[in-house]
Every structure is written in C-alpha cells, then in structure tokens.
Amino acid sequence: MAPRIIKSNVEIKASDIAFHKLLIQSCRNHSKNLFLTEYETGAQFNYEQLYNDSLSVAGALKQFGLNVGDVFMVYGFNCYEYVVALLSGLLVGGIGIPIRGIDTDYELRREIQSRDVKFLFIGSQMRDLASSVKADFEQIKRVILFDSIENDSTFDTINVMKRNENKLNESKIYDPKGNRDSIVLIMESSGTTGPAKGAMLGHYDFATTFQIYSVFFSEPDTGIGSSPLAHMSGAFQWFHAICYGRHLVSLRNTTLDNVLDAIKKHEIKRVTLSPSTMNALNKMEKHIDLSTVRVLTAGSRLPAEVAREFINKYKISQLVNCYGITEAGGSISFNTDVARNYNSVGKVIAGVQVKVVNPQTGALLGENEEGELWVKTYNAFKGYYNNSELVSSIIDSDGWIHSGDIGYYDENEELYVIDRMKDIIKQSGFGYSPVDVEEVLLQHKDVREAAVVGIPDADEGEISHAFV
C-alpha cells in the first residue's frame, strides 16, 4: 500500500471537564471506596478522606496566597500526603510540578529557579534541605512539610493544614472556563536533547488522556503505585486510580522483594514495570505466580527476549507494552498482547495520528520502511516552560511532534520502535540527557572538560559513562 498516516478507528470526545475537577468529583462519587494503602506503614485512606483533606489544604493554600497560575512543586516519595499536596494546589488554580524524592539537591534547585516556583511542598525527611532552599530563593512564598510530620516550629505542615476550618467549597474550585490553553501540570521531559525541560500539559487535554486509558483498563481491581508521580508511568498509575475510584498500594522503597511481597499480600491485579525491572525479576531465583496479574510496561524499549522470559517465568496472563512521550500527553500506542507479537508497541490509540518520515528529506514512508516517528494528537503538550524557542524544534507548523524515535509500521498498522535519534540516556525507564551529568561533573574543581555517553547495561538497560 501507498505511504500513509496511521490512526485509530476509535473516536474519543475531548473532555469538557478540567483535570483537577475530574479528580475531585471522582473522590466525591467514590467516597466509600478504599483509595490507598501505604505498603511500608500499613496506613489506609479512602476517597472521602482524600476529598476532605484536599479541600482543607486547598483552603489553607488560598489563605497563604497561592494564586491562579502560580507554580508549586511537590518533592518527596510516594505517599498519601504527596497526592493531597498535589491535588490541593491544583484546586486553587496552581500549576503543579511533581518531583521525585530521589532527585538531588542540585536538580531541585535548578528546577525551582527555572520554573519560577512559588510554593514548595517537601517531604519531612528533607527538612534540612527545606531550610537552605527557603533561605536561598526569595521567590518561594511558603515551604510546607508533608509525610508523617505533625507540627513544626519553622514550617507549615500538611497535617496541620488538613485541620483548616476554612475548607475550600467545591463551588469555589478553580474553573479554567473552557480555556484549552490553561496549564495544569509541568512534567519533566528529556525532550530530544539537552537538559531536562518542563513540558506543560493542559487541563482538558490531560483529562482526555485518562478517558482514553479507560478503554484499555476498565476493571475495578487493585493496582500498585510504585513509580513516582513525577514520571508519566507513575502519573498513569496514580491518576488513573483516582479517576475511577480504584484501590492503589503505594511503595516508596521499590526493591524487587517489596514489589513481589506487595503483589502477594494485597492481591494486586495491575502492575506497571519498566523493562529493566522485568529483566531484574527474570534473574531472581525466587518468584511467585503472577498469572492473575496484568502488567503494563513503558519508559524504554522492551527487548523481546526479556518479555518472553518474563511471561514464561511468572505465568503472566497479559503483558501490555505502551509507547509514548510526555510531549504527546503520555501514550501513543498500546500492544495489549505482547505474547502475540514481542517486538511491536501496538496500534495507535484514539485521538492519535502517526506517520513515519525520512528524517533527511521529510518524505512520507510506507509499510516496513524505517524513519522518524512523527505524532499528532489533540492531547499534545502546550510547550516547554520558559523555553518557547525550543518548541519549534520538536513541533512543526502543521502540529506534528518529531519524536526523535526511529521506527516503522507493518501491514497491520502496528508500530515498532527500534532506535532513537535523540541524545538521551534511558536508565531503568527514566530518561535523562548527558548534558545534565556533564554539568555536574564540570562543577568539580579538577574537571576541565567532560563528555558523557550512554552504554548498554544488562540490568539497567543503559547507564552513563563519562570521559573527563
């Protein structure tokens, strides 16, 4: 057949409700459902608690002066109060940035400065860092501690804010009033090259994304919240659960033993694992029967031999391989039955178009012809925060996102991703630029020049290697 654009036959209507309103309404509608079990502490929370706590903290944030359009950051590990902090800021019109608790002091400071952060929620384990950050950045109006801390003599805490008597009335929740350009989240993305960038995601677009996911994951079962909310796979785990009133088991320390123990103890039916984690599980001597568990993998390329061994060893009933990029609002395609075709990343999802292009000439390519994957979707990001000039290098004038990934489609219009053009290192499913590592190395007084490259690694998929 002639070269063509491939797309889904399924139509999904764009959401007419903003993302944060979708979340809070779901909390109200599923109030008696169990929301979260914290694996490490055993603490449990239902959706009624999430609803009330988020509105109480939102009321306090409004009193503190968090205004519509202010950027706030949540920095810490997976736990109930991380979600409360993020949701409450969105309810008053703030733009949220979720950050991983494993990110370094250097990375945190860089993000605060480049993203104009006004409010910082930070895990109580990093209290000393909170003090120094507050002293160093005049732009920050408030630093708020969360995660198992009651009171603090210096900082506000989520625990105290949850008892705020001036709870935000649901009728006063921020309303974007149909503005499709309004921003709800800034998610860190490696982009195609250079340091991490803040990809801005829209209120209505992100809500539409989770309507699309419901086509693939509709069962009311228990999932695991092992990936950080700062990563798109973690955002999928956590927000999908909230959107549909599902139960989630959170892990802050995601060792292989903890993951397997949580699955067994809590009878978890939905798990998201990176290809490197699956590879590590393949090498473990002990294993459990996962025949009732559906596994989603994303974040980096899934080697066929890893998938085959994982399915056979753990008796997996369904392994789903997802391909996506942050700039496209998350997912681009799903292979819902990897055992049928180990190499494919599946067919494009509703609302997405993909074409394969010769990167040198721009010519449209046909079946089984390798080229760069270009993507168009109404869930596309709104640009990079404070970096508008970079957007033109990844989105062309016709709205096509140049993914930087090399692939092709076959006669059944299934996608295959085989390589990447972009200068990014993918380690354990997380992408980062060599430039980020080089910048840190160059801070050392004895380093004059530094060059970092990615090299293959059996356990992590890829690791960085430095020449100094």
Topology:
Elements lengths: L5 E2 L11 H11 L4 E5 L5 E3 H18 L6 E6 L3 H12 L3 E6 L4 H10 L2 E7 L3 H10 L5 E5 L9 E2 H4 L21 E7 L7 E6 H11 L9 E3 L6 H12 L4 E3 L5 H10 L4 E4 L1 H9 L10 E4 L6 H11 L3 E8 L4 E6 L11 E2 L3 E6 L13 E7 L10 H4 L9 E9 L5 E6 L4 E3 L2 E3 L1 H8 L9 E7 L3 E7 L1
Parallel strand pairs: 2-12, 4-5, 4-6, 6-7, 7-8, 11-12, 13-14, 14-15
Antiparallel strand pairs: 1-18, 2-3, 9-10, 15-16, 16-17, 18-19, 19-20, 20-21, 22-23, 24-25
Helix pairs in contact: 1-2, 2-3, 10-11
Question: Which characteristics define this entry?
Answer:
468 residues, alpha/beta, Rossmann fold, GMP Synthetase, Chain A, domain 3, 3 domains, 5-stranded antiparallel beta sheet, 5-stranded parallel beta sheet, globular
Provide a descriptive summary of the structure in words.
Belongs to the ATP-dependent AMP-binding enzyme family. With about 475 residues, this protein is of the alpha/beta class. It has 3 domains: about 5-10 and about 205-380 and about 395-420, ANL, N-terminal domain (Rossmann fold), CATH 3.40.50.12780; about 20-175, ANL, N-terminal domain (Rossmann fold, 3-Layer(aba) Sandwich); about 425-465, GMP Synthetase, Chain A, domain 3, CATH 3.30.300. The protein has 13 helices and 25 strands. The strands form 7 sheets. The protein has a 5-stranded antiparallel β-sheet with strand order 1-18-19-20-21, with no helix packed on it. A 5-stranded parallel β-sheet has the order 5-4-6-7-8, with helices on both faces. Strands 13-14-15-16-17 form a 5-stranded mixed β-sheet. Helix 1 crosses helix 2 and helix 10 packs across helix 11 (about 305-315).
